[in-house]
Amino acid sequence: MLLTITARFRPATDLGYLLHKHPDRVQAFAQAHGTAHVFYPEAGPEACTAALLLEVDPDRLRRARPHAGAASFALASYVNDRPYAASSLMSVAIGDVFRTALKGRCDARPDLAAAALPLTLSLPAVPCRGGADEARALFEPLGWRVEAEPVPLDEGLPGWGDAHYIGLTLTGERRLSEALSHLYVLLPVMDGAKHYWVADDEVDKLLRNAGGWLAGHPERPRITSRYLARRRHLARQASARLDALGALEDLPEHEPPERPPEEEAREREPTLADRRAGAVLSALRAEGARTVLDLGCGGGALVRRLLDDAAFTRVAGADPSADAVAAAHRRLRTDRMSERESARLELFCASAVHRDPRLRGYDAAVLMEVVEHLDPWRLPALEHVVFGDAAPRTVVVTTPNAEYNVHYPGLAQGRMRHPDHRFEWTRSAFAAWAERVAAEHGYRVRLLPVGPEDTATGPPTQMGVFTR
To answer: Hey, which residues does 368 pair with through a beta bridge?
Structure first.
C-alpha cells in the first residue's frame, strides 16, 4: 500500500522539514496492523518525493480487530485487499507517522507550513465503488486537479472489465497539512468502510481534521455519514457541531426550522436488514416452526432474534467459518448465558453443501442471504444437502433481487451488491430455481417480497418459503 507526496518548490528537500522525516534516511514505524516505512525515492532542489509504504500483516490485523464482524468466507481474514488498497489503514498510518505535519506544525519552517505549496499526491490503488466520478466529486471542491484511472480486474482479460479500484493522482497548491487531512478523511469515505470500531470519539477526530473544510463541502452529508460508518446519531452530532462552528457562510442566525414529520419518520424506518430478519421470523411463525437452524449464521444476528422469541424452543447456528462462529459466540455472550437459554442454543461449524447429521431434525432451516455467495455449480450440492438430506418441514431462503440494483446510486451498472456475491438473481430467475427445487424435493414454495417494492423493479430482497 503506497502513498507518494511530491513537492516542487525551491529547495524542494525542505519537504523533509514539514514531514519531520529526513530525506537521507529510511525509517520504519510499527503499526497495530503492520509496519509503515518512510523513504525518499527522489530528493533534489527542484523536486522531492516522500513515500509512505504500508506493509499489512494479516495476522496482526486480525489480532488488532478481534471483534470484527463475521467473515464473508472462511479465509477472508487472509485473502482480501487490505494489504494493497489504500483505505482506513492508510489513514491511520498517516495520522501516526505524519502526526505533526497533519497538525500543521513545523518549528523549523513555520512559514513553509503555513504556505500553499505545489504538491502531487499519488496512490496506485484506492477502493472507490463510485469510480472516477466519485473521486472528482470528493476532491475537486477542495481545489485539487484529479486524475482517476480505473484499475482493470485482469489486464490479460479485458473482457472482465474494471475492478472497483482507481489509481488516484491529486495535483494542486495546498498547505501540506490540508493535503494530509483530505486524504486522512476521504480515503475511508471512498472505501465506504473502516477496519476498526467507530466510537463516539470519532466525531471529535473528524472535526479536528476536517472542521476547516468539511462544513462547506457540497458532499458533506455523504462524507460525514461514511466516515462515521453510517451511524446516524454520530452523523447528526457531527452535522450539528459543524453548523455551530459558523463555518457555513449562509448559516442562518435563527434556529433552523423543525424537520417535517415525514422526514423524521423516514429516519426511524427499519433498515433492509431489519426488514429481512423480520420477514424471516414472520414466515417461521406462520409455518409453526419451533426448532430452527440458521445455515450460514455469520455473526449470529438472526440467531439473536430467534433466541429473543420464546416461540422457538431450539435454535442452532451453523457456518463454515470458524471465525464467524466465534463472532456469534461473542455477539450472543454465550459465556454469560443462563443455563436455561444456553440449553436452547447450539453453534457449530458446518457447510450447507456437505452432508452433516447435525443439520437434520429441525422444523425449519433458514438460508438468509447465503445462496448468492456460492458458485452456481455448487447449488446442486446445497439443494441435495438442505432439501434432500436434512429435509426440514420448512426452508426459508432470501436473496437479493438483481433488478432492484438500479436504485443504489453508488453501484455501477452490472455490479453486484457485495464483492463476494457470485451471482444475483432476477425475480424470474429466482422463481425458476425455487419452483424447480420445490418440485424435485417434494415441497411447495411461496415467493414473497421483502422491503419497499418498486412497481418496475420489485423489492430489494426476494424470499422463498418452501413447505414440505
So the answer is: 398
Q: What angle (nearest 5°) sits at the alpha carbon of residue 285, between those of residues 280 and 287?
A: 95
Whether omega before 11 lies within 30 degrees of 0, making that bond cis, reads: yes
Query: In the predicted model, is pLDDT for residue 152 greater than 60?
Result: yes
The whole-model pTM stands at 0.54
Beta strand spans in 57-161 (E): 117-127, 145-152
For the record, the C-alpha cell of 120 comes out as 502531487
361 sits in the region (left: phi over 0; alpha: psi -120 to 50; else beta) called left
Give the list of residues 6+ apart from residue 44 with CB closer than 8 angstroms, or none: 12, 13
Question: Is pLDDT of 300 > 80?
Answer: yes
* 268 phi/psi in degrees, rounded to 5: -90, 0
Residue 251: band (very low, low, confident or very high) from pLDDT cuts 50, 70, 90 = very low
d(CA 352, CA 374): 10
Q: Give the tens place of pLDDT for each residue, 306-348.
A: 999 989 999 999 999 988 899 899 889 898 888 888 999 999 9
Distance CA 420, CA 441 (A): 28
E-assigned strand segments in 280-439: 291-295, 314-319, 345-349, 364-368, 394-400
Q: Residue type at 275?
A: R
**How many CB atoms sit inside 10 A of residue 46's CB?**
12
Distance, in Å, from the CA atom of 76 to the CA atom of 57, rounded to the nearest integer, reads: 14
Please give the Cα distance from 450 to 266 (Å, whole number).
17
Output the pLDDT for position 254.
Answer: 41
For the record, the C-alpha cell of 254 comes out as 435563527
Q: Is the dihedral of CA 281, 282, 284, 290 positive or negative?
A: positive
